[in-house]
Structure of DUF5110 domain-containing protein:
Amino acid sequence: MLCSFCRAGVLLGLFLSSLPGLAQREAGGPPTQDPFARRATTAPTTGMGSYQSHAYRSGALTIRSTTGATVRVHPWAEGVVRVEYFPAGQPVSEIASVSVVQRPYIFDHPARLNRKLEPYLRNVQPDRSLVRNQPTALVWPLVTNTAQEYVVRIDKKTLRISFDYQGQSLVSEAAGAFQQLPASGGTAGGMGISFRLTPDEHLYGTGSRALPLDRRGRQLTLYNEAHYGYQNGEPTLNVSLPTVVSSRGYMLFFDNHTAGTLDLGATEKNTLEYRGEGLNSLAYFLIAGTSYAEILDRYTTLTGKQPLPPRWGLGLIQSRFGYKTEQEMQQVAGRMRRAGFPLDALVLDLYWFGGTTRQGDFRWQPQQFPDPKRMMRRLDSAGVKTILISEPYVMRTSRNDALVRSQGLVGRDTLGQPYTVESFWAGPATLLDMFRPAARQWLWQQYDRLKQDGVGGWWSDLGEPENQPAAMVYDLGPTRRVHNAYGQDWNSILSEGYAQQYPQERLFNLARSGWAGMQRHSVFPWSGDVSRSWSGLQAQVPILLSMGLGGVGYMHSDAGGFAGSNMDAELYTRWLQLASLGPIMRPHGVVAPEPYHYPEPYQSIVRRYARLRYELLPYLYTLAWENSQTGTPLARPLNYGETRLDPQSVFPLLSPEEEDQSWGEAARPVPTWNWSTAASTTWGSERLAARRARAFAASNAPALTNVNDQYLLGPSLLVAPVQQPGQRRRNVVLPPGRWIDFYSHQTVAGSQTVGIAAPLAQIPLLVRAGAFLPMAPYVPTTARYRTDTLNVRYYADTSVPESSFTLYDDDGRSGQAAAGQQFTLIAFAGMLRGTQADIEVRQSEGRFAGSPAWRLINLEVPRVLAAPTVVLLDGQPVPPTEWAYEAASHTLRLHAVLSEKPLRISVRGLQLDADLSATAQPELLTLEAPTRPTFSTSTELRYTLHTPGTYPLLIRNAVGEIVRSFPAAQQAAGPHSIAWDGTDNAGRPLPNGLYSVELQGQHQRLVLLRD
């Protein structure tokens, strides 16, 4: 490809690189028909009526209305309430859910009652009733043992419900639920509900969308869609989630999988409205919490926690469209190893079964893969797993076409006959009915047979489904009612099959689509067929973070970009830098996705970051464990707040006498998640609640509420990817606290925006002051990963008197590690008082197969100005051979062996560099990539001003002469653009060639190629 570019000349090559690439389609383009045609939702509505009577039964409050409608309010769990609406004529019954797995607390079934929540259900008022029947409202206080949780109020006139939480107003319905009546134009009826928004409220979540993190002011479709070659700004992608997280401390989860819409203040700026197409009843959950972490913990308990991945899933997974032979698979693995790149898996696209027309075969293509078992054994012996693609379509040309049609395993038409999708891009096909038991069993048999061949993981593609005509019918219902649940039920075939037949193994499933609760099926989703462009790269951080706020912690992208044939080495490098510091690292594309295709220095830069990822595996694997326990995503928005507890945050709960106690030999146990800390007294509970409220408010400072190009990787690392071509310095928004540059160890104060150098060889990466960052020696595959040596950096800082981190370790593959207590926790705690640092390292008693009998801890303390006066281990001086001070790097290094006995290290006379960097002034503006870097008629020159002012914009030719200047004028902060048609200052057309845009010392390249 590069040679053809050279032969065609530089300008022609640049022009070709701007064209869209071949799709993963036989015809080389997107479908000719739009399978996701949007429907109008405007239609007349009617309300539920007014209050008539109420009753309490089985832990739920049931209200009958004057129209015969029913409202049911059910306390589900701590902080979780379910509300259901049944219109007149609709029987009150259980509403089926494809998302919820947590069972409710029902008073009439003692075996199902959580005693901790019994006060919820025994909340007898002074008049011996559960609910206060006031003249205008029903008031139902829901309390726990010591503190009031919810107060539910139902307005008698409108049946509108409002909620207080922990003594504060939380949220209220705007006008109660309503029925949407069928319109004369054919619009389906349904139901909806609306809620009031406060003016300063921010709304997050809603699934995978290439939109800003804060979704306030947008109307969104709840219908999973595949958009080939999408770029930044695409509103609906492969995973839409019916969840909205509010900066006021709650989540709304609409537990209906039908096609729907979310209006987040688009029509009425202070109203949130949900509408579900064709609904005969409506259910939603209100989930409250004192932090985003607590809300997600409760939501993922409700819909299922994500199991731990196999450790190899956190390594580099190399993919391409596509490897066509067994020989090519071996060659790619060999080239990756020889080029010095780590590798843990190779992905086989649709050529393993023979190509596009053979979808549904589930059989190896014998000419290209003569001995797949041997191939996978050989790869596995080198630490490389094999991942296979499968699709839900069975082509009419497939060997299994007659079988699935004759046995009724596919979607049908209204007459019950197999439905052929004529408009599918690969040719006519049928769609498997993932809701039909016989089809599920048949599909699992295919997976099981392939697994026994040696398949390590799975790739579930096109699961929206990508093309699913509305006239199709399945066991669960017609297309538009079941579309969003299709991928969910497909994913469950693998998760249920593994749970039943391979409970000791962990499932890894790359899936493109799903619904609320998809995380419990061991799904590791990617963001679809993204354009290989800077705009495609810019879409990835908000997609990643929004999915994380919907309980899906492993969202990632086709690193390097999929849709396109261009080879932009800078774009590839920046994308791979981002991927190396994300949940999953998987380069994928049609052209040159493997890093060894790129010249120096790009290849070495990518190699460096891929290796850094492997060095960070102790930290990343601990984040995966945290996700499996609490639902907290690996990558988090800047306003996510704390999830781990520093001991110092306990101080406000202690009495003055307790605060004065020293950290002696009887060290406090190292705590875990701060929002689950319990206080033993009412006084302590009040102080804890107040501290949580302050922390949540601080985390939602205005500067942090809508940052779309940065994220926190776990509690300690801040990643700021470079997303503009040619950018070598960028602004970074810092949360509170101090932050330390990962490379230079310079320290900057938080709660501000700073300018950070971003040379091509690195992206801004900062560490939270006080953090413990566990790392391990580099290995080329996780098959060689061990924790008998840990390289632990302690970023001691005078602003953080106490800090801690708990590392999780197990065998990396057992599906029963947590249940069988087959894991080890290694807790690091540090206390800094004056010039003395006390560090404790201890491990739990848990063990697993292959667990080291002891561990060498290589402790590094950066930013040390001079050698300490003494270093003590368990009160005894450490020999000079076991510690050293490196004056050149200002680093203190210490070696100690950890076994059953805790390590207690004391560094006396420690002089830390407390100076803050004075060279971190923020950039005044960011010059962004033009809309069309290669153009023939016109292009938009785009930039964002961070500081208002007057900034002249210049166009220079290839020799640096100014050929066009745009008048400078006072401009406000925010995004701006200028159209340029390729003319000079006199309006004369300029010749074809290379040009550059210059603004405040920043540059972007342009190529003018007139027809």
DSSP finds 16 helices and 56 strands in the chain. The longest helix spans residues 479-501. Residues 1-34, 107-121, 645-680 have pLDDT under 50 and may be disordered.
